[in-house]
Design a protein that fits this description.
311 residues; mainly alpha; binds iron/sulfur cluster
């Protein structure tokens, strides 16, 4: 599979996959069609439930459960307006993630297989680490020679020096070495091409796996939810969840699939520039009168925000 390059959208910001986000009119049309398809599915399922053979209770039970899940899907009010405002606020594409995100750290002149390895390593280094630090560490690694074979030949202490000061650099040295060994032996020096297999690599979780599938393989398999996406979608009332993985599942329940690839880079940059973990700039946010958290924050009903480490 060929990797696609990042492009600038008609809305003025970048996506990781290189797929151009839809302009708002097209997006609304597609979304309306998808939501109406969902309603049809629910209606269809309900009809099936009514006409299910009563002599087969297990089948009837299965259909009822599926129908109930679809009916209970919570689509937040104003989400299209919120998204449009987010796109407006991000149209300059000038957040750290836009120039130094994990999809910007690899050597574009290297063979595609090596680029994929470097994209995976950038994601591993990026956990709990600012984009600027990850970017600088990847530059040092690439100058050293960032191929599976060369990384395996490099002493742990040297590898540590190269990636320092990324967070948890000692653990990451171990993960990088173990992962590189697995890639060499089990994947013929390439990276796996599925979320399931990527998650089996040491130090790789679902967030990294979904983003990696998009940046390295050009496939949107799910929403990459990091601390920014988790925090902001909870503040906006798009989800009510306790962990990034819960957030991913809850968002994927209602957010139209064509938007899954866009939402990560859009919200990460927004979190870096405006909706910060500490002291969000709600007064200058276009969503301040429709965001549940922002309304309370500006009224002084929320005095403090939780301090979280940036990613
Ligand atoms: S109003 Fe405040 S909390 Fe809500 S999205 Fe904007 S910056 Fe974030």
């Amino acid at each position: 599979m060929e990797k696609t390059k990042t492009v600038t959208s008609t809305a003025g910001y970048n996506t990781r996959s290189g797929k151009t986000p839809l302009d708002f009119a097209t997006f609304k049309k597609k979304t309306k069609k998808q939501l109406s398809k969902n309603s049809e599915d629910v209606a269809e399922t309900s009809i099936n439930t009514d006409t299910t053979d009563d002599t087969n209770p297990s089948k009837r039970k299965h259909i009822t459960i599926e129908s109930d899940i679809k009916k209970n899907k919570k689509v937040p009010a104003n989400w299209e307006q919120v998204l449009s405002n987010l796109r407006d606020m991000r149209k300059e594409s000038d957040a750290p993630v836009d120039s130094m995100g994990c999809d910007k750290c690899h050597d574009e002149n290297a063979p595609l297989q090596v680029q994929r390895y470097q994209q995976l390593l950038a994601l591993m280094l990026s956990s709990q680490t600012k984009d600027q630090i990850t970017f600088a560490a990847m530059k040092k690694l690439i100058n050293h020679g960032c191929t599976i074979e060369n990384v395996l030949k490099t002493e742990d202490t040297k590898l540590g020096e190269l990636i320092y000061p990324v967070s948890f650099w000692k653990n990451k040295v171990k993960y990088i070495k173990k992962t590189s060994e697995m890639l060499l032996k089990e994947y013929n020096s390439d990276i796996p091409d599925s979320v399931e297999k990527l998650c089996k690599l040491p130090g790789v979780g679902p967030k990294m796996a979904h983003i990696c599938m998009e940046t390295a393989w050009g496939q949107i398999t799910g929403i990459g939810v990091d601390t920014h996406v988790h925090r902001i979608t909870n503040r906006l009332g798009w989800v009510t969840t306790k962990s990034p993985e819960e957030t991913r599942k809850a968002l994927e329940e209602w957010l139209p699939q064509p938007l899954w690839g866009e939402v990560n880079s859009l919200l990460v940059g927004f979190g870096q520039q405006i909706c910060a973990a500490v002291k969000p700039q709600c007064s200058s946010c276009l969503n301040h009168d429709i965001c549940p958290f922002g309304k309370k924050y500006l009224k002084g009903e929320i005095k403090r925000t939780k301090v979280k480490k940036p990613t």
